[in-house]
Please model this.
Amino acid sequence: MKNPFGFLIIDKPAGVTSHDCVNIIRKVYKTKRVGHGGTLDPAVTGVLPIAIGNATRLFQYLPSTKTYNAIIQLGKQTSTDDIHGEIISEKEWPILEEISINNFLNQFRGPIEQEPPIISSIHFQGERAYKRARKGESFKLPSRKVTIYDLEFCNWNQDTGRLKLKIDCSSGTYIRALARDLGQVLNCGGCLLELRRIQSQGFKENQAISLPYAKDDDKKIPKLLNPLEALEHMSQVKIMTEKDLDRWRRGQQLNIDNDLSYQKNQSNDISNQYLVVIDNKNVIAGIGEKSIPNKIKPKIVFNAY
Model:
């Protein structure tokens, strides 16, 4: 495939890292320019957006929210905040009902301060936190602001101490940390038992496909998702003439009223400062930034594909 350009939505299986998926996709599409839209731990499954070619430049313009189905195991505290870590303590969990669980969950709804797990890829004093932790170092990562937009109670099993939740949250939220902190609030400890991501950056579970492999023949290589489909949440401007398209590709500003056809997306959840620019063949030409009124300057420019 010459100059592949677009998105591939992978249903990441358990047992592989997000970086493993990127390396596999590089071999399938025969390109080094591949990136993913948010790390999933090896044991976690679900939606992993992969950008190929120049589509890697578009991640910053995608929605940042992510949605998970999670099962939290109460009564266990571990070194990694999930079931795969060393057990630090075990306690009996309290008798709970849905109404009381929701009252506890209220503490985690909306904007919160969250301390990331020490087994994470966050840089701490010049090194990844998980590398320091595996050396036996003792430290705490600084808390960060995250937002849990929706925290939905799904099921509670009093016999097993397992709580199922659906979580819609901002980028940077650690569900393992949520499990740990909920266990602390309940004074019994808690850790993440299972996690599946069902939405990430606007891509949903029903769009995800199995991980392709390089041994597959060319006919089996999945077709990439057009970048315009990934950017449907943004307003668009259309360049009407070849002359103006040439000006755009030279990095010149264009007039929204005279040179461009403007289509506003009312559900735009990214600042109207940025617009998707398409050519007169409905192919993405880049991302524009509003400058002075009624003018747009190139932020990202794509040449013809």
Summary: The first strand starts at residue 6 and ends at 12.
